[in-house]
Design brief:
There is one protein chain. With about 350 residues, the protein is α+β, with helices and mostly antiparallel strands. The protein folds into 2 domains: about 200 residues, Class II aldolase/adducin N-terminal domain (L-fuculose-1-phosphate Aldolase); about 140 residues, no CATH class. The protein contains 16 helices and 11 strands. It has a 7-stranded mixed sheet, with helices on both faces. Helix 5 packs across helix 14 and helix 12 crosses helix 14. The longest helix has 15 residues. The relative contact order is 0.13.
């Protein structure tokens, strides 16, 4: 029996499946196909596949076998093969034919048996702050926590992590991105991840709101509808939240599934004009905010798109009022929108919606 099958048949792999499903079913940790988890032993790693949902871990095959040590050696030596995860996939054990997550190199860079990466909304709300590093230092243990300023996910992030890791690191906060926890067991890593999430959760909560009367009927004429989440609707009724919504992208998955940012209408702007302004552009926006009325998205949005529409409210309502935030630059947005790995995730999301 191969090392990959031994690992897959272990009790720790079963624990990984259960934890992955649990995290993936929690929208405050994972939205849609976001997040990824892995289990490694002696250079063999099972890691979540691109475009799959952690929430499906108990019902579907979502993990891919990877030669993690070989991948890390290639990354460290500058080998061009490191740019393609297929070069390190053990195809004889990959009966599903899935392609490993775009974050596989990140998992390979961390010398721990278990790595859990989520897009925890409380963490993102902290990680978009301009003072994120000092803010997080006041919330989490300094010795075991490492902050990584935003870099493009994948190999670029892997290199940044490898340079910043210390022997005591077991929590990483990724600027404008999310949370990583690692450990020698799945239970240990999950406990660390949840503890960090709790520590970063704000003490006060924003109340949910409902869209204004008649908003749904107005939108229906143009094939749009209110976002079905109260915290996202709250954005339209709060000046601070409107200012956060009105700007460039705050974190990658929003960009990938909803477009670069959101369109915040002028007070005197009609719904028809606002929707036209949001959609008649190279990269259409799937969120339109009408101040005093509500937040809208196109009818027929995919489950991932709706999950990210919910996350928009979950994240923004957790950002401390009146703090400065870092946004992705136009160049950073462009490199993600033109990235084949993200185009694959978009394609997989569309195929999942029609399956």
């Amino acid at each position: 029996m191969s090392i990959f099958r031994d690992l897959k048949n272990s009790t720790e792999f079963q624990a990984l499946i259960e934890t992955s499903a649990r995290l993936g079913s929690n929208p405050l940790q994972v939205q849609g196909a976001g997040g990824n988890t892995s289990l490694e032993s002696d250079g063999a790693m099972w890691v979540k596949a691109s475009g799959t949902w952690l929430a499906d871990a108990q019902a579907k095959e979502i993990f891919v076998p990877i030669h993690s040590t070989r991948m890390m050696d290639a990354l460290c030596s500058g080998d061009p093969k490191a740019g393609n995860v297929l070069n390190f996939t053990e195809q004889s054990e990959n009966a599903s034919g899935l392609r490993a997550s775009i974050e596989t190199s990140v998992h390979s860079a961390i010398p721990a048996k278990v790595v859990l990466h989520t897009h925890c909304v409380a963490t993102i709300a902290a990680a978009v702050r301009s003072d994120a590093e000092s803010f997080i230092a006041g919330k989490l243990d300094l010795e075991s926590t490492t902050f990584i300023p935003y870099v493009k996910p994948g190999n670029d992030l892997s290199h940044a992590i490898r340079k910043a890791l210390t022997p005591k690191t077991n929590i990483l906060v990724l600027g404008n991105h999310g949370l990583v926890a690692c450990g020698e067991t799945v239970a240990e890593a999950e406990a660390r991840l949840l503890a960090a999430s709790r520590a970063l959760e704000p003490e006060t909560a924003t109340p949910e709101r409902q869209p204004a009367d008649g908003f749904a009927a107005e939108l229906a004429a143009f094939g749009w509808e209110p976002v079905p989440y109260g915290l996202t609707q709250a954005i339209a009724f709060d000046d601070w939240l409107l200012s956060l919504a009105d700007g460039a992208t705050l974190y990658p998955d929003h960009l990938v599934f909803l477009g670069p940012g959101a369109y915040v209408a002028r007070l005197d702007e009609s719904i028809e004009t606002a929707i036209g302004s949001a959609t008649n552009r190279q990269f259409p926006l799937r969120l339109v905010v009408m101040p005093g009325k509500g937040v809208a998205t196109p009818q027929g949005s995919s489950a991932s798109q709706l999950a990210l529409a919910r996350a928009f409210g979950d994240v923004l309502t957790r950002v401390e009022r009146d703090v400065a935030v870092n946004r992705l630059t136009e160049a950073q947005e462009a490199e993600l929108l033109d990235w084949d790995a993200e185009k694959l995730r978009q394609a997989l999301d569309k195929s999942r919606a029609t399956a």
